[in-house]
UniProtKB/TrEMBL annotation:
This protein's record includes keyword Transmembrane helix: no
Family the UniProt entry places it in: Belongs to the 'phage' integrase family.
Organism per entry: Paraburkholderia azotifigens
Domain Tyr recombinase, residue spans: 272-467
Keywords, alphabetical: DNA integration, DNA recombination, DNA-binding
Taxonomic path: Bacteria, Pseudomonadati, Pseudomonadota, Betaproteobacteria, Burkholderiales
PANTHER family recorded: PROPHAGE INTEGRASE (PTHR30629), PROPHAGE INTEGRASE INTS-RELATED (PTHR30629:SF2)
One Pfam family named in its UniProt record: Phage_int_SAM_5
Protein name: Tyrosine-type recombinase/integrase
Limits of the Core-binding (CB) domain: 164-248
Length: 481
C-alpha cells in the first residue's frame, strides 16, 4: 500500500490505490482471487489477469477515495455472483466452461476426444482429495454432491444427464422480462404441481398440456377447489407459450412449442360482462367520495377512483403514475401516460395504443392535488400502491371494488372499477364525441393508416369533449382538497 503525500507534512495510505510510473494519476489495483479465475467467461475484464487495474482519473486521494469504494463494491459483488450464481447463472457459467474446450451440447460428437479427457481431468481436480482416492465412487451422479454448482452442471451436461427444465425455462424468461416475474412464477408453479416434478421441457407433451388445462378448469390448483375462468386459463397459457418459445429459440432446442394453439373447452362462454355505471350510479359514486372526504379527508383510494371516473383510464395507468407524469399547472392540465420500469402501459395491439396524454376535469384535478399532498414528496403519485419494484394495481382494485359495492345506490349492481372505463365510453358517445377522439382519450387504436399521421388531436380539443361528456354529473359538485 503506497504512501500518498497530501501536503509537505501530511501523507496517507490509500488501500487499493497505486500511482503508475510516469503518470500522476492514481489507479485502482485489486488482486483477482484464484478461486474465480476458472469461472470467468471468455472476454471478461478479469480474465487472464492477476490484478484488476482501472484508472481513477485523478491524482487527488480525496477524489479517488469514493471512486475506489465504488469499484471495490462492484468487484466484490461480481465475484460473489461468480461464486454463488443464480440457477440461470450456474447454467450460463457451466456452458462457458464447456465452450472453452469446444464442447457443444447440441453436437457433442464433434468435440475432440482429447479436449473431453482434459476437461474431465480438470473436473476431477475440483474434487476433494478423499473423493478422488475413493474407488467406490465411479458414477457421475455420485460425484455431483462433491462439486460446486457450476462444475456439477458442467459434468451433467458433459455426460448427457442435464436437460433444460421448467425452472430453467422460467428463469430465462423472467431474466429477459422482469416485469413478468410474479405472474410467470405463479403459472410455472401450477404447471410443476400438475406434472409432479420439475420436468425437462423436451419431455412435456401435448397430452400434458391438455390435461393441465382441464386441471385448471376443474379448480384442482386451488385449495378450495375453486375453478378459474377460461379467460384466465388463456392468459396462463399465453405466458407458458411465450416462455417456451423463448427457450426453444434461444437454446436451439429444435422443438415444436406444445403450448401453441391450445384449445380451451368453452373458451369465452363463462366471461362475465363488464357493467358500466349509469349516470345516476356515477352520481352516487361521486356523492360517496364527497361524503368520505367530508368526514375523513382524502385518501389514495378515493383519489384513484375519482381520476378513473373522470378520465376513463385503466386502473394500472392511474395507480402507476409518477409524480412527474401529472401536469396540473399546464394551460390544459393533463396526465402523461407512458411506460415505467414498475408499470408498462398496455402494449400496442389491435385495439390499444401505448402512450398518450389525457386532459383532466375539475374533479380529477382536485383528486390529484390531494394525492400530491398525501404523497409527501414521493416520486410516485400513489406510493401506497407503487414503488420502484412494482405497481400493485390488483391490490388497489380489490380494495376499491369492495368499497364501491357497499355504497348507497351501487349495492347489488355488480359494478367494478373497470366498469368506469366502459362508462366513460358511454358518456363520450352520448355527448356526440367523434370515434377517433374517443379512441385517443381511452387509449384505443383508431383503424386505418391515416390515424397514425401527424401529431394527433390537440389537448384542448380532448379536454372540451371530456367536459361535455362529464357535464351531466356537474350538479353533484366537486370534493374539495
Amino acid at each position: 500500500m503506497p504512501l500518498l503525500r497530501l501536503t509537505s507534512i501530511v501523507s496517507v495510505k490509500l488501500k487499493y490505490a497505486r500511482p503508475k510510473k510516469g503518470s500522476s494519476l492514481l489507479f485502482f489495483y485489486r488482486r483477482v482471487p484464484d478461486d474465480i479465475k476458472p469461472l470467468l467467461p471468455a472476454g471478461s475484464k478479469y480474465a487472464a489477469k492477476t490484478h484488476y487495474v482501472v484508472s481513477l482519473q485523478t491524482s487527488d486521494p480525496k477524489v479517488a477515495a469514493p471512486r475506489i469504494e465504488k469499484l471495490l463494491k462492484q468487484t466484490t459483488e461480481e465475484w460473489e455472483y461468480l461464486r454463488n450464481p443464480t440457477r440461470a447463472g450456474v447454467r450460463r457459467q457451466a456452458q462457458q466452461l464447456l465452450q472453452r474446450v469446444g464442447f457443444d451440447p447440441m453436437y457433442p460428437e464433434e468435440t475432440e476426444e482429447g479436449a473431453l479427457w482434459a476437461f474431465e481431468d480438470y473436473l476431477e481436480d475440483q474434487l476433494p482429495q478423499s473423493v478422488r482416492e475413493d474407488r467406490t465412487i465411479q458414477h457421475g451422479h455420485q460425484l455431483d454432491r462433491h462439486l460446486s454448482p457450476v462444475h456439477r452442471e458442467a459434468l451433467q451436461v458433459l455426460q448427457g444427464r442435464r436437460g433444460f427444465t421448467l425452472t430453467d425455462c422460467l428463469d430465462q424468461y423472467v431474466a429477459a422480462r422482469p416485469s413478468t416475474d410474479k405472474d410467470a412464477r405463479l403459472v410455472f408453479g401450477y404447471l410443476r404441481e400438475f406434472l409432479g416434478k420439475d420436468r425437462d421441457i423436451r419431455k412435456v407433451k401435448r397430452q400434458d398440456v391438455n390435461g393441465f388445462v382441464e386441471w385448471l378448469l376443474a379448480g384442482k390448483h386451488s385449495e378450495d377447489g375453486k375453478s378459474i375462468s377460461t379467460t384466465t386459463v388463456h392468459r396462463y397459457l399465453n405466458t407458458l407459450r411465450a416462455a417456451f418459445s423463448r427457450a426453444i429459440r434461444e437454446n436451439e432446442l429444435g422443438l415444436d412449442n406444445v403450448f401453441a394453439a391450445v384449445e380451451i373447452r368453452g373458451k369465452g362462454k363463462d366471461a362475465q360482462q363488464r357493467h358500466p355505471f349509469t349516470v345516476d350510479q356515477l352520481k352516487a359514486l361521486h356523492a360517496a367520495v364527497g361524503t368520505w372526504v367530508a368526514v375523513r379527508g382524502w385518501d389514495q383510494l378515493r383519489c384513484i377512483v375519482t381520476v378513473l371516473a373522470e378520465t376513463g383510464c385503466r386502473l394500472a395507468e392511474v395507480v402507476g403514475l409518477a409524480t412527474a407524469d401529472i401536469h396540473l399547472h399546464a394551460a390544459t392540465p393533463y396526465i402523461d401516460l407512458k411506460d415505467h420500469p414498475w408499470r408498462s402501459i398496455k402494449a400496442t395491439g389491435s385495439s390499444t395504443v401505448s402512450t398518450r396524454k389525457v386532459p383532466l376535469t375539475p374533479r380529477a384535478i382536485a383528486a390529484l392535488q390531494a394525492a400530491h399532498k398525501l404523497a409527501q414528496g414521493s416520486a410516485f403519485a400513489f406510493p401506497q400502491y407503487t414503488s420502484e419494484d412494482a405497481c400493485k394495481s390488483n391490490s388497489a382494485s380489490a380494495a376499491l371494488n369492495k368499497w364501491v359495492k357497499a355504497q348507497e345506490g351501487l349495492q347489488g349492481a355488480g359494478l367494478t372499477c373497470h366498469g368506469l372505463r366502459h362508462t366513460m365510453k358511454d358518456l363520450l358517445r352520448a355527448a356526440g364525441c367523434p370515434s377517433d377522439i374517443q379512441d385517443r382519450i381511452l387509449g384505443h387504436a383508431t383503424p386505418g393508416v391515416g390515424a397514425t399521421y401527424g401529431r394527433g388531436h390537440p389537448l384542448e380539443m380532448l379536454a372540451d369533449w371530456l367536459a361535455k361528456a362529464t357535464a351531466p354529473l356537474a350538479t353533484e359538485g366537486t370534493a374539495r382538497v
